[in-house]
Every structure is written in C-alpha cells, then in structure tokens.
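quick q for whoever's on today - can somebody do inverse folding on this one?? i tried earlier but teh output was garbage lol. tokens:
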C-alpha cells in the first residue's frame, strides 16, 4: 500500500494520464512472490560494456543485488540522495555517476558505488547490462547488474547519500506497488515509471530514471521465471 504522501516531489504535468499496468501484473502470484539472485542473473546475463559503449553513455549506475537471509530473497540496494546535492536532491537512486575519460562504463559504476556507499569493487560480480536509459539533455545512463556474495556492510558518504535502502525485489512485484503514467511535454509523450509501498519503501517514492531501471530489471526477471516455469510444466 502506498503512503498518503511522499518525501519526493514529482513535477507531474496536468496532461499526465495513466499508462498500462506492469507486464508482470498478469502473472500468477506464485511467479511473483519470490525472486532469487540466480533468476535475476540468468535474466540479465549477456550484454555489457560493449553494448553500453555503443550508445556512448555519459554516466553509469550499479544495480547491487544480494541474497538476503533467511530465505535468500534477491534484494536490491538503493540510496536516497543527499538534500545538499544540486542534481535530484532527496531522490531515490542507484549508486552511480559520470563516466570519466578513458573509463569503461562498468568501471565507472563500481567506482561510484565505492565512493557513495563504500561498496568494495572486488566484492561485486558484474553480470550484465540491465538497460541504457536516456534522460533530459540527451544524457545516456548505463545500468549494470552487480551481484554481491553476501549482504553488504555499507558506509554511506554523507555528502552524497542521506540513507541506504535495501528492498526485496519480490515486494516490488506485488499488486499496486508499480505503475506508469504517460506524460506529454510539447509534442513529445513519454512513459514515466513509479514504485511506492509503505512496507518496504516507507514514504519514499522511486520514480523517473531509477524506476525505469527497476522496471526493466523486474520485467526481465519475471519474464524469465515465466519461461522457465512454462518449459518445466
């Protein structure tokens, strides 16, 4: 259930209208009630730096996932950005930032995750490219799946990160947690994605680029689960 209000302000245009439901909404509950790290890895494995570099990305983020005890549920690490930052203060995001000259996008994601939350790059297995997302001013952001061998001991950099959120992926597949809207700006129309649930996100709202990356990850993982279950039926 979504809270009555959120920390994050959304500049929703008056033309905003509801979009279609999430693609996983039609799946049986048993295919959405649990998500394993292996399921996520298998769904994303394949694409990597070469695909990201072909899109000339200027920024990269890490999508850190680990198996949480006691049941090994795939859990994703998100951050709430510091209110002192000039860009997107207080927004929920993945650790990441700009790709430096001569730097591979995946390496940039690892470096930024280390700088922002103290995640050791040696503890992260980059398993594939989740998505390349465009944002305002034509910037392209590559999102890499990073699997952690254990629940991480993180040390958030207070100048960049207000807090760290650890969210079970299965909780985001529940009914009513995710939705999308169609926004029109001038002649252009785009889909904007959202996640909200008081039980796992409190009064935080995940929206925009971060929500689109999560949406892509969950779509791939749930579709992979449906294919596997269908093949074994």
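ok took a stab at it. sequence:
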């Amino acid at each position: 259930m979504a809270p009555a209000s959120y920390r994050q302000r959304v500049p929703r245009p008056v033309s905003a209208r509801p979009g279609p439901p999430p693609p996983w909404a039609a799946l049986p509950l048993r295919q959405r009630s649990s998500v394993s790290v292996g399921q996520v890895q298998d769904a994303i494995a394949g694409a990597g730096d070469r695909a990201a570099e072909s899109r000339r990305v200027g920024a990269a983020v890490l999508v850190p996932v680990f198996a949480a005890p006691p049941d090994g549920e795939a859990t994703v690490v998100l951050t709430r950005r510091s209110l002192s930052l000039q860009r997107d203060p207080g927004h929920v995001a993945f650790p990441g930032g700009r790709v430096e000259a001569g730097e591979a996008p995946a390496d940039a994601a690892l470096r930024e995750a280390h700088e922002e939350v103290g995640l050791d790059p040696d503890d992260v297995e980059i398993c594939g490219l989740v998505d390349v997302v465009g944002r305002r001013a034509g910037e392209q952001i590559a999102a890499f799946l990073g699997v952690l061998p254990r629940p991480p001991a993180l040390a958030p950099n207070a100048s960049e990160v207000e807090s760290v959120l650890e969210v079970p992926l299965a909780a985001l597949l529940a009914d009513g947690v995710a939705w999308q809207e169609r926004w029109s700006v001038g002649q252009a129309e785009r889909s904007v994605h959202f996640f909200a649930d008081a039980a796992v996100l409190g009064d935080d709202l995940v929206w925009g680029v971060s929500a689109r990356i999560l949406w892509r990850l969950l779509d791939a993982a749930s579709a992979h689960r449906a294919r596997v279950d269908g093949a074994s039926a």
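fwiw The longest strand covers residues 59-68. also The CA atoms of residues 40 and 221 lie 5 Å apart. so keep that in mind when u check it
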